[in-house]
Design a protein that fits this description.
Blueprint lengths: L1 E5 L5 H11 L17 H4 L11 E7 L2 E9 L16 E6 L8 H15 L4 E6 L5 H7 L2 E7 L2 E7 L1
Antiparallel strand pairs: 1-2, 2-3, 3-4, 5-7, 6-7
Length: 158
């Protein structure tokens, strides 16, 4: 049975793993080298998780953490998905064995509800044009705003 729990500071190690998987590149490329997580423009999305304003959920299937969807407020035009100083940027990652089974949409909706309950009015993300997850994001209420450095900037109003 699929359930959700808050993404906590105790999940820091797992969050690094989920962020690594979330850095999707089109096939045939595989995962980027793990050292990419050391780059400041990447680490900002996970470092010291649990800061004020951080919101996230972990998807749990039959007692196993299978993925996470998280949002972090980054200010002053920091981050590729920056829209304004009131809009958190979203990351999402689901283990490969659990994809294409409906879990991602349920996890995204749970995370968006958590963001709404936290007082956010909208969230943003960027996605590679070839990433099939774009369709999931659209089903969850995200709209494409513009191309930014080769990625679609998307926003969902809550």
């Amino acid at each position: 049975m699929l359930s959700f729990r808050p993404l906590l500071s105790e999940d820091q190690t797992a969050l690094w793993n989920w962020l690594h998987v979330a850095l999707w590149d089109p096939p045939p490329a595989g995962l980027r080298p793990r050292s990419v997580l050391d780059h400041p423009e990447v680490s900002i999305y996970a470092q010291d998780w649990g800061k004020p304003g951080d919101v996230g959920v972990v998807a749990v299937l039959d007692g196993v953490d299978i993925g996470a969807c998280w949002m972090r407020m980054l200010k002053d035009q920091v981050g590729l998905a920056w829209v304004d100083n009131q809009t958190p940027q979203l990351g999402i990652s689901l283990g490969a064995a659990y994809q294409h089974q409906g879990h991602g949409g349920k996890m995204m909706r749970a995370a968006l509800e958590a963001a709404r309950q936290a007082g956010y009015r909208q969230v943003s993300l960027t996605v590679h044009p070839q990433n099939p997850a774009r369709q999931l994001y659209a089903r969850c209420g995200f709209e494409e705003l513009e191309m930014r450095e080769g990625f679609y900037l998307m926003r969902a109003r809550l």
